[in-house]
Amino acid sequence: MLEWHRATFELKCAGLPPGRLSERAMPPSSLSLHGLVRHLAGVERWWFRIQFAGEDLPLLHYSDDDPDQDFDDLSGDVEEAFALWRAECERSRQITAAAVSLDDTGIRKRTGEPFSLRALLVDMIAEYARHNGHADLLREAIDGSIGR
Predict the structure, then answer these.
(1) Residue 52 CA from chain centroid, whole number
(2) Terminal CA-CA length for the chain
(3) pTM
(4) Angle (CA) 39 41 44, round 5°
């Protein structure tokens, strides 16, 4: 199901020129497809690499001083943002494939509490489902496209 949601997000963004991916098509919201891909790359890194696998990496598109930069700062190349998201998804797949079971655990950085890979996958499905709904509305507002 997570793979389906990742593919669905990519389809919702497909075929638009790079400049249109940065449109904030639902005022007053600052959401854009470009912002969503930046956000999802950061979410993949945070949950799979940093918290579950314990990799020591910088956060993407986030700082305590500017926590919403994934949506607010759309500087940079859109294609590079998609390439980074795809790379983070691939690393997440590798981490998942290397797990012995869905009961393998990571540690929540903020609380020190363990969480299972199973819980992580369920949370990621919910994260993508929510943002695919956003992407669907944005895409329809940008060019009228609807559907999967």
Answers:
(1) 16
(2) 14
(3) 0.95
(4) 110
